[in-house]
Write a structure and sequence with these properties.
149 residues, alpha+beta, 5 helices
Length: 149
């Protein structure tokens, strides 16, 4: 699910970028900021990336304007989404196939497939790349479920 982020970036007394970005994660917002200012890293800059709950902002604006005018929709600059790696991803489900409460973020079926893949290759990095997950997510899951035992 995409979120709307407000980004402000300054260097000394100069504002280099101020605007919105629609993306899945804060990391995509950081990547977007680097592209906008044309830098490979953000060292030496002061920046903030804040997730904006749009309905709340619309309510605040309507209240400030006296409630008579509906808040206009915010224009959103959307960046192209990179295609997901080709992997058999399970649809997210709040309950696993065996009826236990599951992981609503990715689904227990995906993690079962990830574990099976890991048991074949024994490589966290390859498993993460194959399923489009972060290495830290795979490491955390492996430690929590005792994959190495």
């Amino acid at each position: 699910m995409n979120k709307l982020y407000w980004i402000v970036c300054e260097e000394k007394d100069t504002t280099l970028f101020e605007g919105r970005h629609l993306g899945r994660t804060r990391a995509t917002a950081i990547k977007f900021l680097k592209e906008q200012i044309g830098r490979r890293n953000l060292n030496g800059l002061v920046f903030t990336i804040t997730e904006i709950p749009v309905p709340l902002i619309r309510e605040i604006v309507a209240e400030i304007l006296g409630g008579d005018l509906p808040a206009p929709p915010l224009p959103i600059k959307e960046t192209p989404v990179e295609p997901e790696p080709e992997a058999p991803l399970a649809s997210p489900a709040p309950v696993a196939s065996d009826g236990r409460p599951g992981n609503p973020g990715f689904g227990d079926d995906l993690w079962a497939q990830a574990r099976a893949y890991w048991e074949e290759c024994r490589c966290i990095r390859k498993t993460a790349e194959h399923f489009g997950l972060s290495q830290n997510s795979v490491k955390t899951r492996a430690r929590r479920e005792g994959w190495r035992k």
